[in-house]
Amino acid sequence: MGFSKNFLKILEIEYENEENENEDNINNLIKLAFGDQVRENIKRDKENYITESIKHENYIEVKINPILKERKKVDLINVKEKLPEYFHKCFNFNLFNEIQSMVFNKTFNSDENLLIAAPTGADKTNIALITILREINKELRMKN
Fold it and tell me: Are 95 and 79 in contact (CB under 8 A)?
């Protein structure tokens, strides 16, 4: 399951007249916020997603339950198997977590630019450390 188990999305739909507050406008806003597939899921199973619709003077507030996606199983990467021995003491654990394992190959074996977005507490700092170790490792290999 996804990270946002307690997340409740609130959409505010502005309207100028009574004709604009129809279900199509709600569906279009959901498509804009979440994409086509999610919109289709919500249209099919509305009572499980939309918990509340409140009409205000100039907009409708629609509360949508968390939309959780099945995630692929990620094999956790062993620090000692993937990093040179002289880097083992940089980490006080044996396995990288799920997010670190997902991006390890690009962070340690590639010079690609990366943008990592993950929840607070996902240990993004160790991802940055892996990229620093990559640069140190490149320098050490060039000197040998």
Answer: yes
> Is the Cβ–Cβ distance between 73 and 102 less than 8 Å?
no
Asked if 79 and 88 touch (Cβ cutoff 8 Å), the reply is: yes
Q: In 56-102, at which residue ranges do the beta strands (DSSP E only) sit?
A: 59-64
pTM of the entire predicted model: 0.54
Nearest-angstrom CA–CA distance, 67 and 46: 12
Q: 27 vs 130, which has greater pLDDT?
A: 130
Yes or no: say if 83 and 140 are a contact pair by the CB < 8 Å rule: no
Residue 120, token pair as written in the block: 């607070």
| Residue-wise pLDDT tens digits, 6-54 | 444 444 445 444 444 456 666 666 666 666 666 666 666 665 666 667 7
User: What does the block give as tokens for 31?
Assistant: 């498509």
What are the extents of the domains in the chain? 9-64, 79-143
Check whether 94 has a pLDDT greater than 50. Answer: yes
Q: Are the C-beta atoms of residues 11 and 33 closer than 8 Å to each other?
A: yes
Report how far residue 6's alpha carbon sits from residue 66's, in angstroms, rounded to the nearest whole number. Answer: 7
